[in-house]
Specification:
The chain has about 130 residues and is an alpha/beta fold. The strands form two sheets. The protein has a six-stranded mixed β-sheet, covered by helices on one side. The protein has a two-stranded antiparallel sheet with strand order 5-6. Helix 2 links the parallel strand 3 and strand 4.
Length: about 130
């Protein structure tokens, strides 16, 4: 089910981990008004290393939205190793802030005008 909320006039869409592999979900959130999409995740080291950044950037680019993708890092109680490398990606696919493989706080201002600017340059959202 699609989950969106508005906080201080900003439309947020919510996804989680495995959702990153389903581009249509992100498109549906954007068509419902999402400007920023949040994605908490626990990608493991192998899939994180090979897929994480590529998929996060692709979802931001496809939907001309900010994507805030937080990914767990470290070794967990079951010896599961998660990748880390949380990302803040702008609507053009540029990484504007990132963490590495250690817990971090990313404090970053975003310019929501970038969402409309990108969507006006290439109005792909209107054509599917």
């Amino acid at each position: 089910r699609l989950v969106l909320t508005k906080i201080k006039n900003v439309n947020f869409g919510f996804t989680i981990c495995y959702d990153l592999r389903f581009p249509n979900l992100f498109r549906q959130l954007v068509k419902k008004g999402a400007e920023v999409i949040l994605l908490p995740a626990a990608f493991t080291v192998p899939t994180g290393r090979d897929h994480w950044e590529t998929l996060v950037r692709a979802r931001a680019i496809e939907n001309y939205s900010f994507l805030i993708a937080t990914n767990m890092c470290g070794t967990h109680h079951t010896n599961r190793k998660t990748y880390g490398y949380s990302l803040l990606v702008n609507p053009w696919g540029k990484i504007i802030n990132k963490a590495k493989s250690k817990p971090s706080i990313l404090n970053t201002e975003i310019n929501l005008n970038e969402v409309m600017e990108a969507r006006m340059k290439i109005p792909a959202i209107l054509n599917d």
